[in-house]
Amino acid sequence: MSPTLVGEGEQASLAQHGMWITERMGCGGRVYHMPLAIRFDGPLDVDRLLAACHDVVRAHPQLAAALAERDGVLRLVPAAVPPPIGFEDASGSEDAGREPGELVERETALALDLGTGPTARFTVFRLAPERHLLVFVAHHAVFDGMSKDILVRGLADAYAGLSSPALPAAYGEAVEREDARVAELLGDAAAFWRDRWRDRQDLRLPGLSGVSIRAAAGEAVDFALPADLAVAAEKMGVSRFELVLAAVHTLLAAYGNEDAAVAVDLSTRTEETRGHIGPFVNELPVPAPAPGGTFAEFARSLREELRAVYRFRQVPLARAVGGVSPRTALTPVSVSYRRRDGSAPRFPGVEASVDWMSFNHAVRGTLHLQVVDAPDGIAARLQFNPAVLSRSGCETVAEHLLALLRAVAAAPDAGVADLPLPSPLAGGAVEPSFARAGEPAAASRAGEADAAPYLAEVGEIWREVLGMPEIGPDEDLFDLGGHSLSITQIIAKVRERMDVELSFDVFFDEPTITGIAAEVARLREEAC
After folding, report:
1. How many helices (H) and strands (E) would you count in the chain?
2. 3-state helix, strand, coil in the chain (%, to 5)
């Protein structure tokens, strides 16, 4: 059966909750917009394709959903504004020097609203009588990398007149089961990460002037990975992803980064969610020891660490440890690696080609390596924040990574010391800046408002939500183990008991009982 949104709405997943909070705190935006472009050559039936878009939305109503908080619980509800599905005649745009990529960028820049919708949009452009472009953009809260394949297959089947395959479980049922698994694993996950997670954000990279774990405008450097990596990975007894991740760790260590963790996107899909469109992904850090011995030995040791992390792939790090504030990147450097089966979409009567790596021109941290591994090649992109990392610096990282991977592919058993690695960078590591882009350093939001009259009541709410008998007035919410769900519950209880609507930003700037009490005082003064 297909998933449906019924009654008061299905409970949102933990991934959706995290992105919703991040958006409400002003830290998301375009970085969560996921574009996909399909080019059609031949006599396309535009009406038939538009109808196929509608069919896909009906089969996957998450694309027509919004997120709404009700009594401290975030739920999926039908969006007030459904996904726009439209057609635009852009004939002559290519002759006028306008590239199709400009249309993708224009669509990606359009607003997506998790509160009201739309959370996705489809636009078919006519470029010439027998040349068209479909640009799809969805918010990451309803879409992920594997959803791209599901979407394209669904469009191709609907265009061909085929019905959508039945899904084994409703989306909400899958979320409930995932929540139960997280609750079951939470204690073990906390113990697992206790000795592994260090929220270190100092970094050494060529051309680096700052460090960011916040969303920002991004640029990219594209390149292709060596085709013979698959053979080398097989000889080492690791996957291609594990080989590439080991190379990234080795390169970071060569630059002089000690005990650096690299965050990776791990799929949380199960057999019952394999066919669902949705955000079935969790970012987790993968620490590694200093590379030594042969590269193959290091890669295999990293494989073991990754296998240990996999056990907790459905548990958000912020739920398992304290001190992780809402952000778009866990670590300054991150990796996403997706393997495709290579099957080409078949739209009867036309040739279709998909840009699986359409760029949203944003970056979630300092540097992100995106890899799409398909039978016709391994495409890679380094996305970077140009405000803290120069283009020449990013290009140098790409060159160093390629040189390392080529050497590893040629000699899988080579010693790490024998590989073509750069010398450690001179100078100390660059420290992070936590100010949001375009904002001055935050002064006290509450000014001279007197927090004292509200400390007791706010403190009681915090103790209830966090389940702790005593909390100091200046203890940080995130250091206490608070996370996005805690923020939502505190806001709901303050609204109910104190008749005040807190903004999410106050938890970014002053996540303490004193800070929240002062904000309550300020809001009440404004209301008088």
Report:
1. 14, 16
2. 40, 20, 40
What is the C-alpha separation between 332 and 384, in angstroms, rounded? 10
What distance in Å separates the CA atoms of residue 498 and residue 266, rounded to the nearest whole number? 40
CA 145 to chain centre: 10
What residues pair up with 478 in beta bridges, in sequence order? none
How far apart CA 384 and CA 393 sit, in angstroms, is: 10
Say what angle helices 484-498 and 14-24 make with each other, to 10 degrees: 60
Residue 294 pairs in a beta bridge with: 415
Residue whose token pair is 């899958």: 174
| Helical axes 240-255 vs 229-236, angle rounded to 10° | 90
The count of other CB atoms within 10 Å of the CB of residue 267 is 17
Distance between CA atoms of residues 143 and 522, nearest Å: 38
Distance CA 74, CA 484 (A): 10
First CA to last CA distance, the chain: 53
Beta strand 362-363 pairing with 216-217: antiparallel
Predicted structure pTM score: 0.87
Element at 526 (helix H, strand E): helix 513-527
Pseudo-torsion of CA 84, 87, 88, 89, nearest 10°? 180
Q: Rounded to whole angstroms, how far apart are CA atoms 288 and 343?
A: 35
Cis peptide before 118 (omega within 30 of 0): yes
For 148, residues 6+ apart whose C-beta sits below 8 A from its C-beta are: 34, 36, 354, 356
Query: Residue 194: exposed, middle, or buried by beta-carbon count in 10 A (0-12, 13-18, 19+)?
Result: exposed
Do residues 10 and 170 lie in contact, with contact meaning Cβ atoms separated by under 8 Å? yes
Q: State the Cα–Cα distance between residues 462 and 184, nearest whole angstrom.
A: 24
DSSP string, 142-183: G--HHHHHHHHHHHHHHHTTPPPPPPSS-HHHHHHHHHHHHH
CB atoms within 10 A of CB 195: 8
State both tokens at 217: 């405008």
| 3-class state of residue 387 by DSSP | coil
- Please spell the DSSP secondary structure of 91-129, one letter per residue: TTTTTTT--HHHHHHHHHHS---TTTS-SEEEEEEEEET
Dihedral, CA of residue 194, residue 198, residue 199 and residue 203, to nearest 10: -160
Contact (Cβ atoms closer than 8 angstroms) between residue 410 and residue 253: no
Provide block-wise average pLDDT over 10 residues at a time, the chain (528 residues): 46 91 86 97 98 96 92 90 97 71 95 96 96 97 96 96 88 90 94 91 94 94 95 96 98 94 95 94 94 96 96 93 84 95 86 95 96 92 97 98 97 96 85 48 50 88 89 86 83 87 80 88 80
Asked if 133 and 351 count as a contact pair (C-beta separation under 8 A), the reply is no
